[in-house]
Amino acid sequence: xxxxxxxxxxxxxxxxxxxxxxxxxxxxxxxxxxxxxxxxxxxxxxxxxxxxxxxxxxxxxxxxxxxxxxxxxxxxxxxxxxxxxxxxxxxxxxxxxxxxxxxxxxxxxxxxxxxxxxxxxxxxxxxxxxxxx
Length: 133
What we know:
Layout: E1 8-11, E2 26-29, E3 35-37, E4 41-42, H1 54-71, E5 79-86, H2 92-103, E6 109-114, E7 125-132
Helix pairs in contact: 1-2
């Protein structure tokens, strides 16, 4: 359920193949919405530690996204697009367990890319978040 149905609308057009993951093909933002662009969120914890475990970085990153949204009085339902940059293959079972708890049945649009490196050598995943509200 999309709680911001007056601002954000999500679609998976019938003439396209169904999404291969938990995302929406189309996210439409109303004209009266404010756009929010956040710096890439990483797997650092509240004590400024970056775990070596990839899945723990995923867990921390999504938790950090919830916190940064909250700092602007937004919820995960305000997220319109997430770009995922990873240096290792994503454990989709782990990823979607957390993702689906946060984003529910109407997830934002998504792009995934596997890359050689991120801003710090210990980083394995970074999520680029766009929101509207």
